[in-house]
Amino acid sequence: MSSKTQIKENNMKMNMFEKSKQNFIIVVALLVLVILFYLLNPNFLNEYNIISMAQSLAPYAILGLGVTFAIATGGIDLSIGTVCIASSVVAGKLYTDGLIPLWSTIPVMILIGGLFGLINGLLIAKLKLPAFIATLGTMMVSRGLSAIIVNAPNVFYPTGTWFNSLFSNNNGFPSGILWVLGFMVICMYIMYKNRVGRYILSIGSNEEATRLSGINTDKYKIMAYVLTGLGAGIAAIFWSSSFVTVASATGSGMELDAIAGVYIGGTSAAGGVASVGGSVIGAAMLVVIRSGLNFVLAKYNVSVNSTYVTYVLTGVIVVFSVLIDILKNKKKK
C-alpha cells in the first residue's frame, strides 16, 4: 500500500471518528434537554406530545437532509421553505380541482422541488451568482408564483386516508419518522459512499483544486442543489399529510429552522464537512426546544411568547455551533 493511500485512509478514519464523536455529543445534549423539560413539566412526554413532535420533525428533518448537500459545497439555499410550501399547494390545487388523483400529488411535489433545485444550481454554477442571492430570488419567485397559480388562500388535503397514515400518523404511530430514518440512510450513502457526495465535499473543501484535478465542478454543484430541491419537494409530502390545511404564499422561516438544524448538527458553514445524521439530530433538538418551552412557560404562567424565546435560544446555539466550527478549522490549519 502506497504512503498516499495510507494517509488518505487515515484521514478518512479520523473524519469518521470526529463525526461520530460530534454526533454523540449532540445526542447527549438532546437527551439532557428532554430530561430537563420532563423534570420541569412531566406532561412534556405525554403520548400526544411525543406524536406531535414526531409529526412536526419529519418535514424539517428532510429539509435539513436536503440542504446539507448545498451547505457541503460551501453554499446555502434560502428557498427550501417556500419551495416546500409551493410544491404542496400546487399539487394540492391540482388534486382538489380533480385534475390528478391523490397519489399523483407525490411525484408532482417532488418534481416541483427538483425543478427549483435545478434552477438554483444553474444560477449558481453556470451564471456564477452568489448562492445567497440566487436562492433569495427563487425563494420570492416560488412564493409568489405558487400563490398566483393556486389563486386561493388555502389548499386542503384529505384526512383519514392512506396518505395521512403512510406519511404522518398511523393509528397513533408517527410513520413519518420511519421515512426520515430511511432518507437519512440514503443521504449517508450518497454523501459518504458515492462519487457524487465525495465530489460535493471536495468542492466545499477547495473548489479550484477539485476543478484542476479534472472534476466537472459545475455538474456536481448543480447536483447538490437538485438534491436540496428534491429534499424540499419530499418534505412537502410530509407537511401536506400532517397539516392538511396548507396556506399559500407561506414557508418563509422554515428554511432558517432547517439550516439551523444542519449547523447545530455539525455540518461546516464553510463547506467540505457534512454530518448527515447530525442534521436530523439538530432538527430534533429544535423541535424539542420549541415544544418543551411551550410546556414549561405554560406551567409556570410566564407571560412570554415561547416562539420568541425559541428564536433567542436557536440563535445562540447556531452562533455557538458555527463558532466552534471556525475554531476547529483554525486549529487544523
Question: Which key features would you list for this structure?
Answer:
2 strands; 13 helices; globular; two-stranded antiparallel ribbon; single chain; 333 residues; mainly alpha
Output the helix-strand order. HHHHHEHHHHHEHHH
> Class by helix and strand content?
mainly alpha
Helix count equals: 13
Largest sheet: 2 strands, antiparallel
Q: What Rg is obtained from the alpha carbons, in whole angstroms?
A: 20 Å
Helix content: over 70%
Q: Give the averaged pLDDT, no decimals.
A: 90
Gross morphology is: globular
How are the strands of the largest sheet arranged? 1-2
Low-pLDDT residue intervals, each spanning 5 or more residues: 1-12
What's the short story on this structure?
The protein is mostly helical. It has 13 helices and 2 strands.
Protein described:
The protein is mainly α and 333 residues long. The protein has helices at residues 3-40, 47-72, 80-96, 105-125, 131-150, 162-167, 176-193, 195-205, 207-212, 217-242, 254-264, 276-299, 306-332; strands spanning 154-156, 245-247. Strands 1-2 form a two-stranded antiparallel ribbon. The longest helix is centred in the first third of the chain and has 38 residues, at 3-40. The chain starts with a helix and ends with a helix. Residues 1-12 have low confidence and may be disordered.
